[in-house]
């Protein structure tokens, strides 16, 4: 395996540096605890693919297994690369013997070192990695990468080889396999789970990845247990896409060169009958790149009348309030996404895992696949083309947020990916649309019953109190309220002013801007907190930020920026002042310390919306000087700084 992080490349002799990078990958993607499966798990998989008698017949006649060992695999290799070609011969022998004779798909194990393997870092993914062996695949869900014959978009499974002396270095192996799995989820957006193998000259270990995380098997002897080894080979090479870990309700038809020419998505329609939509091949799917978590993927489809719809697939944790239920409650509300139909309980991660009862309580959390079909709007607010368009979209999104609150719902994830532009010429109230209620909270009036949590939402746009949650003991944790979201709107507005020109082009690179955006999206919430607190309280922050803006923003939005900043400052300062009040005895629950602040809920919304209305009235009088050059607008719905980590892919 070759491994790189940014511009650094690591070979096996850079052991400490390489292991440090791998451990960081593991912590970021999977957390602290990945369970070891029970001893029977790997051997119990794929029993339906081949009978015991058929396995015995193959082993007796095989030219690659003799005398109770795989004779192609060297007994005492000096380097792991000596295992690659012999192992490919074993795998291909098994696939050719047991595979169907007539087939529209193919599987072939190939050594990556002998083939050109295309790797492309995606979004904020800077780690690059190529496995030793891949199962090259063709079929409905696979397509070769542009400009290459082999890449993560057309492999069914990844296999790494190691010497037996390195077989027990499980954390490093897990990290490497996690990188492969991450990119398979990205390049195969209809993936439900990924499985990979580690093979030495004597033993093998299976790794499994899904949206709940990962697990791995015990090492087992491939020579003494050839039946289990063959079944795993057949499972990782099966042409049954559902069994392989792919969602077969999404299918593609190939054109010249194996490229996808059209596709379909099958789901439940508004009349509860099965319906098949055409994928809009001109619109690439949007994919959340985190390996573990919601795994949100959005598809643009067309119904029989040519109407565009958005299909959102994601994985929800058990006992989490249903987004489907919340979307049902907001039916007909202006400025809020509207649901057409839904399909829940599509798949469960616990059904991919075998027996999970022996896992530690915090080592596995089941997630269930949910599909929601929604009305299509335009693109992300980051694709605005004028001052008026972006201000109107933000204004109407804030108004929609107030309407949500009237239905006792708090959004909790205000970010550019969750505010869409409406179609050109939309009426007031519909010019910006709030989407994505999958971490929204039910509330009692202006406050939820759920404490602020820096792990929820998009880091760059989190409020100061949400970021401060990492420092507070449970006794002092306040509940997430509407003011946290209103403050998030301020950070989003400021981000747009600093990152874009008034006509939606990217601003040229600037040290101040890069530094500020990086600190706001820092993985450490305390670092982001300190940066935002300084931005709201330092007198120099006003001058520095306005100097970093395009000059025409200053003429069009200076008053709005200063007033909105003052509002965010007042709220954050008052919460900071009140956070420790009212607790007479240390260790006892504190009363609702922010009730006096929240009693002005209507006035808070009126005040912020009036700011935007005044700025919008001023827009026709402001001549926007667009002569300052900027790079062309991005094709993606996200920006380089967006910490929501969503990417768009070629079909």
From TrEMBL:
Origin: domain of life: Eukaryota
Gene3D superfamilies with a match to the protein in the record: Transferase(Phosphotransferase) domain 1 (1.10.510.10)
Bias (Polar residues) ranges: 635-645
SUPFAM superfamilies in UniProt: Protein kinase-like (PK-like) (SSF56112)
Protein name as catalogued: Protein kinase domain-containing protein
Domain Protein kinase: 286-568
Start and end residues of each stretch annotated as Disordered: 624-651
GO molecular function, one term: ATP binding
């Amino acid at each position: 395996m070759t491994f790189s992080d940014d511009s650094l490349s690591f070979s096996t002799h850079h052991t400490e540096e390489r292991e440090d990078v791998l451990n960081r990958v593991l912590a970021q993607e999977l957390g602290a605890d990945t369970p070891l499966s029970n001893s029977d798990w790997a051997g119990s998989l794929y029993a339906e693919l081949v009978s015991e008698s058929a396995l015995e017949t193959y082993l007796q006649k095989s030219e690659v297994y003799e005398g109770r060992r795989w004779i192609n695999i060297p007994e005492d290799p000096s380097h792991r690369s000596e295992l690659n070609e012999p192992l490919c011969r074993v795998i291909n022998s098994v696939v050719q013997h047991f595979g169907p004779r007539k087939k529209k798909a193919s599987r072939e194990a190939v050594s990556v070192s002998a083939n050109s393997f295309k790797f492309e870092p995606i979004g904020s993914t800077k780690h690059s990695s190529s496995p030793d062996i891949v199962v090259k695949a063709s079929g409905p869900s696979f397509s070769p990468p542009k400009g290459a014959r082999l890449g993560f978009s057309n492999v069914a499974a990844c296999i790494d080889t190691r010497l037996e002396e390195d077989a027990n270095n499980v954390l490093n192996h897990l990290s490497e396999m996690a990188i492969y799995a991450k990119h398979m989820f990205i390049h195969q957006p209809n993936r439900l789970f990924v499985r990979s193998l580690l093979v030495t000259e004597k033993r093998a270990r299976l790794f499994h990845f899904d949206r709940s995380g990962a697990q791995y098997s015990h090492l087992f002897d491939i020579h003494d247990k050839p039946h289990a080894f063959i079944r795993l080979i057949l499972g990782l090479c099966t042409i049954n896409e559902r069994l392989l870990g792919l969602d077969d309700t999404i299918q593609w038809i190939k054109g010249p060169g194996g490229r996808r020419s059209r596709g379909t998505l099958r789901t439940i329609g508004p009349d509860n009958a099965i319906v098949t939509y055409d994928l809009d091949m001109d619109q690439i799917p949007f994919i959340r790149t985190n390996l573990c978590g919601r795994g949100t993927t959005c598809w643009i489809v067309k119904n029989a009348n040519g109407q565009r719809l958005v299909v959102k697939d994601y994985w929800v944790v058990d006992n989490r309030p249903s987004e489907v239920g919340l979307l049902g409650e907001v039916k007909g509300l202006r400025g809020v996404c509207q649901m057409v139909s839904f399909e829940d309980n599509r798949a469960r991660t616990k059904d991919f895992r075998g027996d999970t009862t022996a896992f530690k309580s915090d080592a596995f959390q089941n997630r269930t696949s949910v599909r929601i079909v929604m009305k299509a709007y335009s693109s992300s607010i980051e694709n605005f083309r004028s001052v008026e368009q972006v201000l109107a979209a933000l204004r109407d999104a804030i108004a929609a947020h107030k309407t949500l609150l009237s239905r006792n719902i708090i959004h909790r994830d205000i970010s550019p990916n969750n505010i869409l532009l409406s179609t050109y010429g939309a009426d007031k109230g519909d010019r910006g649309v709030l989407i994505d209620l999958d971490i929204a909270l039910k509330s009692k009036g202006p406050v939820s019953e759920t404490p602020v949590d820096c792990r929820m939402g998009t880091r760059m746009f989190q409020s100061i109190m949400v970021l401060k949650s990492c420092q507070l003991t449970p006794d002092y944790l306040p509940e997430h309220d509407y003011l946290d979201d209103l403050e998030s709107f301020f950070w989003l507005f400021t981000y747009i002013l600093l990152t874009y020109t008034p006509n939606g082009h990217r601003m040229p690179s600037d040290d101040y801007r890069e530094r500020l955006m990086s600190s706001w999206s820092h993985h450490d919430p305390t670092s982001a907190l300190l940066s935002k607190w300084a931005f709201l309280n330092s007198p120099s922050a006003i001058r520095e930020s306005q100097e970093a803006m395009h000059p025409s923003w200053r003429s069009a939005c200076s008053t709005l920026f200063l007033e909105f900043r003052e509002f965010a400052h007042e709220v954050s300062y008052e919460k900071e002042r009140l956070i420790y009040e009212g607790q007479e005895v240390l260790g006892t629950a504190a009363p609702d310390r922010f009730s006096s602040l929240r009693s002005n809920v209507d006035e808070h919304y009126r005040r912020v919306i009036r700011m935007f209305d005044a700025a919008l009235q001023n827009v026709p009088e402001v001549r926007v000087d667009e002569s300052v050059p900027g790079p062309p607008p991005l094709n993606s719905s996200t920006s380089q700084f967006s910490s929501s980590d969503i990417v768009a892919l070629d079909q």
